[in-house]
Structure formats: C-alpha cells, structure tokens
Amino acid sequence: MGSLKLTGIRKSFGAVDVLKGIDLEVADGEFVIFVGPSGCGKSTLLRIIAGLEDASDGRVEIDGRDVSAVPPAKRGIAMVFQTYALYPHLTVRDNMALGLKQAGAAKDTIASQIEMASAMLSLEEYLQRRPAELSGGQRQRVAIGRAIVRDPELFLFDEPLSNLDAALRVNTRLEIARLHREIRSTMVYVTHDQVEAMTLADRIVVLNGGIIEQVGSPMELYNKPANRFVAGFIGSPQ
Ligand code: ADP
Ligand code: MG
C-alpha cells in the first residue's frame, strides 16, 4: 500500500526542460523529502505524481500499478499545498468533508473521519468556522485534516510550512512528524528548507536543474555529500 515508483520522468514546458529523467522508488510508509532550489521542478514533479500534470515522458507507478490513465481522485493520494487551497465560503467541517462527499462516502463515515482528524489536529473547536476566521497555522491544519480524512495511501506535501511564521513552522513540523508516526502512510514532501528535510525525512532526494544529485538518509547526505552542490545545500542555511 502506498509505494511509489518513478521511472524516467521528464517534463518540458515549451523549449524548457524542467525535469530531465527522474528515477526513484519510495517504499510503503517511507517519508521522502525532495529538496532543491526554487524553480528546480519540485512542484512540477509532485503535480505529475498527483496526476494534475502529465509528464512528457516516463512512468508513475503506485503500488506497482501504472497510474497514467488513473484520474487524480482515484490515485489514493491526498495533496497538501503551500497556499492551503481551502474553500472560503465553506466551514472547516465542510472543507474537510468535500473530498469524501465527492468520492461518495457515507454520512457516518464522513462524520467519524472528521472526528478522528479534528481530534488528531486539535481542530474540534473550529469546525463551524470559515477559513477567514482562522490563523494561518489553523488553516494549514485544516488542509492537512482534509488530506487525512480521505485515508490516503500516499500523502504529497508541497512546501506546507512556508507560509507560516517561525514558531508555527516548528509546531506544524512536529505535528506532521507525529502524524507520520501514527498513521504510517507514505509521505512525499517538497521543501527548499534544509532543516525540515534533515529533521523529517527517512531519505532526502536532492534535486537540481531537473536531475537528482543524490539520494540518501539525512546523515548520509550530511556526512558524505556526493558533490559540492549537495554539500552546500545540506550544509549551509540559505
Ligand atoms: P519549484 O517547485 O521547484 O520551485 P516548479 O516545479 O514550480 O519549481 O517550476 C519549475 C520550472 O518550470 C520553473 O522554471 C517554472 O517557471 C516552470 N513551470 C512550472 N509550471 C509551468 C507551466 N505551467 N508553464 C510553463 N512553465 C512552467
Ligand atoms: Mg514549488
């Protein structure tokens, strides 16, 4: 459940080659983090995994199944975006319920999933509020809650902490770590922040210029960087 295999993923926008052949296997339950400078193709890669964008070439497999013909909603994936992407006119409860409703879940299931997720994320008191009545950190917790209720095999996070202030960033990071310990779903997470990568990841993938520079555990990358780019990126804060 929830393993991921990328084979020869390429993506061009017009004449610009953004991804130049990405190969990677992610095991079930693994927490893998893609790091790399702004514009190196991290979001594009997540969008391709989610099915929101087509690759120019290559194959995405989830649980050993080629998903090229599988629409985003049927991939067993939930994605959390940098900008939360909540519906402003819906309450927290309805924002969390929407994906489940669209998937045809029963009312009881929806209610119990929302209860579980809101307890996990300390959102019980906020279920009747609208996004504008929440802080940035609470909004991001709702976005994470909306992902959790769908019980995905695979979570995709695109820089989920980058719009939060420093204190909230630490809190939310710890919450994501706890979430991973509790539910053991596979997580593929994108960031340009080395600290997030070093503290959360089982393995880090360093992306640069559309290719993978190195894959390894945080300690492997720190102790044995494959090249200067990796050494500079992992070693020194930006
Ligand atoms: P990252 O998330 O690592 O910052 P992105 O994946 O968003 O990078 O973008 C990688 C490159 O692809 C950038 O140069 C960006 O301008 C370009 N790009 C992304 N999406 C599109 C698009 N829909 N059309 C044209 N160029 C795009
Ligand atoms: Mg991005």
Automatic annotation (TrEMBL):
MF term (GO), any: ATP hydrolysis activity
Q: Does the keyword ATP-binding apply?
A: yes
Membrane topology, from the record: Peripheral membrane protein
What main location does UniProt list? membrane
GO CC, alphabetical: ATP-binding cassette (ABC) transporter complex, substrate-binding subunit-containing; maltose transport complex
What is the designated name of this protein? Answer: ABC transporter ATP-binding protein
Which species?
Answer: Stappia taiwanensis
The opening ranks of the lineage are: Bacteria, Pseudomonadati, Pseudomonadota, Alphaproteobacteria, Hyphomicrobiales
Q: For this UniProt entry, which residues form the secretion signal?
A: none
User: Which UniProt keywords are given for this protein, alphabetically ordered?
Assistant: ATP-binding, Nucleotide-binding, Transport
Positions of the ABC transporter domain: 4-234
Please give the first and last residues shown and the length of the full protein.
1 to 238 of 333
| Keyword Transmembrane helix part of the UniProt annotation | no
Q: Which family does it belong to?
A: Belongs to the ABC transporter superfamily.
The places in or outside the cell where this protein is found are:
Cell inner membrane
